[in-house]
Write a structure and sequence with these properties.
Elements (H helix, E strand, L loop, with lengths): L1 H14 L22 H4 L22 E16 L2 E21 L3 E17 L2 E7 L12 H11 L4 E5 L5 E5 L1 H11 L3 H5 L7 H7 L16 E10 L2 E17 L2 E15 L11 E16 L4 E17 L2 E19 L1
Antiparallel strand pairs: 1-2, 1-12, 2-3, 3-4, 3-5, 5-6, 7-8, 8-9, 9-10, 10-11, 11-12
Helix pairs in contact: 3-4
């Protein structure tokens, strides 16, 4: 069981590539409830707009943005000539609060995790089930015990993001406080490292980087633009190349939105050894991304996206290679905007 459980780290490391675009799973049972300023969330613009449209994020000071990061993942591997199947669902409720404008058109944003939920199944057997909204005790000898400690420790810690006008995160204040809390909850370095992709700086930066999807100029229906970025993950360097196309206007979740379609690729870059995983390397041999994005220009915010990733990879450890096929939806959705 311990060997299988360590594969969770590999899957998280290979998949927490949020800069490809923020995405959403279905909200039926995996979203936090929110009741806020409906006037803000039901903003609209004319669907007959003919001129260029500005799709840049416009943070509203004094507002609180409730969001949800969701991951729904299926992983297939051949481990020692034995098939291995893993299904992972992860949902994180969080909120972002604009603090102040910074030089050159950027903004400082405070982000706080409010809730955590994880279900992990391997070969049809439930291995980890955790929901921070439930108060049932967790068996300290079960695999879920470390999960519970890590995920509970991440809640309520303010992380202050400095985001430039280009959408890139230059720094995050508060990581030291988060790290101190995690070390106190899980003193064992090896146990903590198994979950490091959930809270290391490279991963946390992606939560504030979704504005990188925006073009740097107003666009018309039919226009396309490209976005490329190099991202460090626990699986090594990843090169993400995306193309966005403004398809037209569409009503979505009570908003009149610019509907964008996206296509892209994920590739390994330089293939450095993965950190915290015993020196394994992950080589993405084929990585395809497709999806849809909805942006409300009147609200100045992405409302929702659907980002589907299909990745074929090779994992090498101690001279042995394992092939893997990953299919998933991963990202972020806006639930509410309130005072």
């Amino acid at each position: 069981m311990k060997k299988n459980f360590s594969l969770l780290t590999l899957c998280l490391a290979a998949t927490l590539v949020l800069a490809a675009g923020c995405s959403k799973s279905k909200k039926v049972s995996w979203s936090a409830s929110g009741s806020g300023d409906q006037a803000a969330t039901n903003s609209s613009v004319s669907s007959t707009t003919n001129g260029p449209t500005d799709l840049t994020i416009k943070w509203q000071d004094g507002k609180k943005y409730a969001l949800q990061m969701s991951l729904d993942q299926d992983m297939q591997m051949d481990v020692g000539k034995q098939p291995f199947a893993q299904h992972l669902k992860l949902a994180q409720g969080l909120h972002m609060t604009p603090l102040r404008a910074i030089d050159s058109g950027g903004h400082q944003i405070e982000m706080v995790f409010d809730s955590q939920k994880m279900d992990l199944t391997q070969n049809g057997q439930s291995l980890v089930t955790f929901d921070s909204s439930e108060h049932a005790s967790v068996d300290p000898k079960s695999p879920a015990a470390t999960t519970a400690k890590i995920m509970k420790s991440m809640l309520g810690v303010p992380l202050d993001y400095s985001i430039g006008a280009d959408g890139k995160v230059s720094k995050i204040d508060g990581i030291d406080t988060l790290t101190t809390r995690l070390k106190a909850a899980v003193p064992n370095t090896r146990q903590r490292a198994m979950y490091s992709q959930l809270f290391d700086e490279n991963t946390l930066k992606q939560y504030g980087a979704f504005s990188q999807m925006s073009p740097d100029h107003p666009v018309n229906i039919g226009d396309s633009w490209n976005k490329s970025d190099d991202i460090m993950t626990g699986a090594g360097g990843m090169a993400v190349d995306m193309t966005y196309t403004f398809e037209g206007w569409e009503q979505h979740d009570g908003h009149n939105c610019a509907h964008l379609q996206l296509t892209g690729t994920i590739k390994s870059k330089n293939q450095p050894a993965a950190t915290g995983m015993g020196g394994q390397t992950v080589d993405v041999q084929s990585g395809k991304i497709t999806g849809d994005v909805w942006f409300d220009p009147a609200l100045g915010m992405f409302v929702d996206t659907q980002d589907n990733q299909d990745i074929v990879m090779k994992i090498t450890a101690r001279g042995q290679s394992i092939s893997g096929h990953l299919q998933q939806t991963i990202g972020m959705s806006l639930l509410d905007v309130s005072q």
